[in-house]
Design a protein that fits this description.
Blueprint (H helix, E strand, L loop, with lengths): L1 H27 L6 E6 L5 E12 L2 E9 L10 E9 L4 E12 L3 E7 L5 E2 L6 H13 L1
Antiparallel strand pairs: 1-2, 2-3, 3-4, 4-5, 5-6, 5-7
């Protein structure tokens, strides 16, 4: 009984690490799909979606997006590529992996970041909310 519990716990921990590694590998390829311009933010950042990356699994949606930043960040980032998990039932987003690039459209040097596993609720009229709405409509 204890052995079965330990094996199950061991497999669960390794499965989570394996999934994070898989997501990181998928997002690391700039040419995963074709970026299609979707919307702009009030700050003039331009958002692109990779419609080929949209997946539905376990009641959630997953997708890649790219942001070309209107203003270079203090760390020198000009674009951001992110892999997200979305919950269409209660309209929330979890950021799974984020990569910052020092050139537009995911070019140049990159700096990868794995955010905390927290859900966020995109504000109304935000680019994030528009994207989640599009992804949820697209999956149906």
């Amino acid at each position: 009984m204890v052995r079965r519990f330990l094996v199950k716990t061991y497999k669960g921990i390794h499965m989570k690490k394996l999934l994070i590694l898989l997501f990181s590998i998928l997002i690391s390829f700039n040419s995963y799909g074709e970026w299609k311009k979707f919307t702009s933010s009030v700050d003039n950042d331009i958002y692109y979606l990779d419609y080929d990356s949209i997946r539905v699994a376990g009641g959630y949606v997953y997708w890649l997006d790219m942001i070309d930043l209107a203003t270079i960040t203090s760390s020198g980032a000009q674009s951001v590529e992110a892999y997200h998990q979305g919950d269409c039932d209660i309209f929330r987003i979890k950021h799974l992996n984020i990569i910052f690039y020092d050139q537009p459209m995911g070019k140049g040097n990159r700096d990868s970041f794995t955010p905390t596993e927290e859900w966020s609720y995109p504000p109304s009229n935000s680019a994030s909310r528009k994207i989640l709405k599009e992804i949820c409509n697209f999956k149906n």
